[in-house]
Design brief:
The chain is built from eleven helices and 13 strands. By secondary structure, the protein is α/β, with parallel strands linked by helices. The chain has two domains: 234 residues, TIM Barrel; 57 residues, Alpha-Beta Plaits (2-Layer Sandwich).
Length: 302
């Protein structure tokens, strides 16, 4: 990791799903969780990596010559093939491809350069009550850069939000909260065993950090909603109780979508959760009703 730059995999302008108003969302690359349903698997690695768009390939063969590992072949019958076991992510092929078929996911950027991108939409922030959201991956694993970035945004009068899984030390989270107006706290499951089976880590540290963060900042709780995993009425009642105990202003239910299923082959991976589906729409609204009857503000999809 570059000590003076942040590793970013996307800066999304005109975002309306990551906090109040119109926002710019800065996506930090690298995440210690391995959620089975991850919709952005390109965000997981702590280094830039290769992402393939076969539909853009014109068969020119420049990538074959650029690859020092011989991981790319091109034939008239089968087109381009990548032997992922030989790919060392040197990314030389991405520089050779002029058709955006082989793409680098992840770039190192200095804070002033990130802020310069954010400023492009400043007029929208002012008019809509929006601002800047830093997300991931898991942003707290680049806490020093994220704190610097949010401090720079605060110095320019921007509203700031942090979207986090909460899986980090409290010290890292606390250092970022100093410059954060709102925390979007992702909760996957309240049972630690189920959480570990689905993400690779337990939830004890996550829930401890949620309680501590709620004492310092405004929080919204966000839950990816997956049929048969965390969508039972009993689980939603537990989530509602958690929100009420900690003064959460809102719960966002985020129904599962298949973004990760399409992206995984583009990274040379097998999607680990092929049977995942979103709950039925009427069930989602029933869960929403349960929470609203307890006085919780609930949104679906944002």
């Amino acid at each position: 990791m570059n000590n003076h730059k942040g590793l970013i995999f996307d800066i999304q302008r005109f975002s309306i799903h990551d906090g109040p108003g119109i926002r710019t969302t800065v996506f930090m690359k690298g995440c210690p969780l391995r959620c089975l349903w991850c919709s952005n698997p390109e965000s997981q690695d702590f280094f830039p990596n290769l992402m393939v768009r076969d539909i853009n390939c014109k068969g020119c063969g420049a990538c074959v010559n650029a690859c020092p590992q011989g991981a790319i072949t091109m034939t008239q019958a089968e087109g381009r093939k990548i032997e992922w076991s030989r790919c060392d992510q040197c990314l030389l092929c991405t520089g050779a491809c002029i058709y955006h078929s082989l793409n680098r996911r992840g770039s190192y950027m200095e804070v002033p350069d990130i802020v310069q991108e954010i400023r492009k939409d400043e007029g929208f922030y002012r008019n809509s009550g929006g601002g800047v959201t830093v997300s991931g991956g898991e942003a707290l694993w680049q806490s020093e850069i994220v704190a610097q970035l949010l401090a720079a945004c605060k110095a320019e009068g921007m509203h700031t939000a942090l979207d986090t899984t909460g899986h980090s030390s409290w010290e890292k989270l606390a250092s970022v909260l100093n410059f954060t107006d709102l925390v979007l706290f992702d909760v996957k499951h309240l049972d630690s065993g189920a959480h570990r089976r689905a993400t690779g880590v337990g939830n004890e540290q996550i829930l401890e950090n949620l309680v501590k963060a709620a004492k310092k900042k405004r929080i919204w709780i966000r839950m990816p909603l997956i049929a048969g995993f965390n969508d039972s009425e009993a689980h939603i009642q537990e989530l509602t109780a958690l929100a009420k105990r900690n003064g959460a202003e809102k719960i966002s239910l985020l129904p599962y979508h298949e973004g990760g299923k399409a992206k995984s082959p583009q990274l040379g991976r097998i999607y680990p959760y092929p049977d995942a589906v979103a709950p039925a729409e009427n069930h989602i609204h029933r869960l929403k009703d349960i929470m609203e009857k307890e006085g919780i503000v609930v949104s679906i999809g944002s």
